[in-house]
Structure formats: C-alpha cells, structure tokens
C-alpha cells in the first residue's frame, strides 16, 4: 500500500516535470509558468478548475490570489486544507490575449487548447490518481469532465459518472463568486461550501463501495 502511494506521487511528479517544456498548443506562447497542479496526489478528491490566471501564471501554482484564498476558506469550512485534496485545471497555461492597451486579458481556452491539454496532461494525471470524486469548478471544467453543454444552474450539485473518476460534481468557480455582490455573493459562496461538503461526503460513501476499474 505504502509502495503504491509512493509510486503515485512519483508518477504525478514525473508528469509535472515532463509538462514544463510543453509547447503542444499556442497557450505556451504567452505563459510564464506551466501550472500543473498541487496538493495531495494520493487524495480521493480532485478539484479541477478552468486554467491559470495572472497570479497563477506568475507563481506556477493553481488557485492563488483572491480566488485561491476563497477556495482555501471554503475548504477549511469543510474541515480540509489544500494538502487533503489535489488541485489542478483543464489547461496548464494561462489563456490570455492583449487588449487594445496592450494589457493581457484572460479569455476562456479554446476547445482545441482544452482538448490538447486534457489529452496530454489532465487525463494521464487522473489515470494515476484515480480519484473517487472530482469537483469541477466552473462550467468549462464541467463541460470537459462531465458533459458538453453543462448547465451550471440546473446541474450543479448532481453527481455524474465519468471516465476520469468514479463520480464528478460541479460547483461555482471562486472567481465567478468574487464577481457577485451582497446577497448574491453570500449565496454563491454558501453554494461552493455546500458542494465541497457534498463531494467530501461522497468520498466517504464511495470508499465503502467495491473498487471499480476506471481506465
Ligand atoms: S496549455 Fe497544456 S497543452 Fe497547451 S502548451 Fe500548456 S501544458 Fe501544453
């Protein structure tokens, strides 16, 4: 068991090192750092966001800055820290283009960019980790992991089977929550805490189920 755990961690680290020079899609052209993921690769709970923003690109770490602080707070309210989960994204390089003033502005990754990064890096990482539950943050992550055309407002909080892990569920992205104000902010934040807690409880349930072959 111990050897298996060490092997998983080593394999994820090897994938991370291998991804550093990746130039498989055009997102490499403007990146500072490849943001591969962080946390515990042995965790049964994996959180998948959309992709790095400005702070993540600068630091090489996922979910830093205000969105990361909010995610950490919500995890803590469910009794967890980053070291208890593995956190990654659909794409590993920042998707951004210069605006008319030359300032880099985030944009959603294209379907081609997402598909390339999923095939090369996300899928192999999840194949090593074999999570029991994946929590997708934001519709682009849910579209990639759960199904295309995911409707966040209607389908949020529901578990779906997925080839990437035994169950997947989607919740609001912390960056979206930060754009809300007043009661809308409070309600969106509470929904993220609720979805993290639902995912945590599902891990406990899933651990009691017979093992499934995922890949
Ligand atoms: S986004 Fe992914 S596939 Fe594209 S260059 Fe970066 S690591 Fe490679």
Write out key terms for the chains shown.
215 residues, alpha/beta, Uracil-DNA Glycosylase, subunit E, six-stranded mixed beta sheet, two-stranded antiparallel sheet, 8 strands, 46% helix, binds iron/sulfur cluster
Plain-language structure description:
This protein is of the alpha/beta class. It has a single domain, classed as Uracil-DNA glycosylase-like domain (Uracil-DNA Glycosylase, subunit E), CATH 3.40.470.10. 46% of the residues lie in helices and 15% in strands. It is built from eight helices and eight strands; from the N terminus they run αββααβββαβααββαα. The strands form two sheets. A six-stranded mixed beta sheet has the order 1-3-2-6-8-7, with helices on both faces. A two-stranded antiparallel sheet has the order 4-5. β7 and β8 form a beta hairpin. Bound molecules: iron/sulfur cluster. Iron/sulfur cluster binds next to α4.
What name is given to the CATH topology?
Answer: Uracil-DNA Glycosylase, subunit E
Outline, from the CA principal axes?
globular
Compressed to H and E, one letter per element, the order equals: HEEHHEEEHEHHEEHH
What is the total domain count? 1
* CATH architecture classification name: 3-Layer(aba) Sandwich
What are the segments in which pLDDT stays under 50 over at least 5 consecutive residues?
none
Counting DSSP H or I runs of 4 or more residues, the number of helices is: 8
Share of β-strand residues: 5-15%
Distinct ligands, ions and cofactors found in the model: iron/sulfur cluster
The number of distinct β-strands equals: 8
- From the alpha carbons, calculate the radius of gyration and give it in angstroms: 17 Å
Provide the residue-averaged pLDDT: 95
Helix content: 40-55%
Going across the major beta sheet, what is the strand order? 1-3-2-6-8-7
The largest sheet is: 6 strands, mixed
């Amino acid at each position: 068991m111990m050897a298996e755990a060490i092997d998983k961690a080593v394999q994820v680290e090897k994938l991370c090192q291998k991804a550093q020079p990746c130039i498989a899609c055009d997102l490499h052209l403007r990146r500072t750092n490849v943001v591969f993921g962080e946390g515990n690769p042995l965790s049964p709970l994996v959180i998948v966001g959309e992709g790095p923003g400005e702070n993540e690109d600068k630091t090489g770490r996922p979910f830093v800055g205000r969105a990361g602080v909010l995610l950490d707070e919500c995890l803590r309210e469910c009794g967890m820290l980053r070291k208890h989960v593995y956190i990654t994204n659909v794409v590993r390089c920042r998707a951004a283009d210069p605006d008319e003033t030359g300032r880099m502005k985030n944009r959603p990754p294209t379907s081609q960019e997402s598909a390339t990064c999923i095939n090369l890096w996300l899928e192999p990482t999840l194949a090593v980790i074999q999570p029991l539950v994946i929590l997708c943050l934001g519709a682009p992550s849910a579209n990639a992991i759960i199904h295309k055309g995911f409707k966040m407002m209607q389908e949020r909080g529901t578990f779906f089977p997925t080839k990437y892990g035994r169950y997947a569920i989607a919740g609001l992205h912390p960056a979206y929550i930060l754009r809300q104000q007043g009661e809308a902010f409070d309600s969106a934040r509470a929904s993220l805490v609720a979805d993290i807690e639902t995912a945590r409880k599902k891990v406990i349930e899933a651990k009691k189920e017979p093992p499934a072959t995922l890949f």
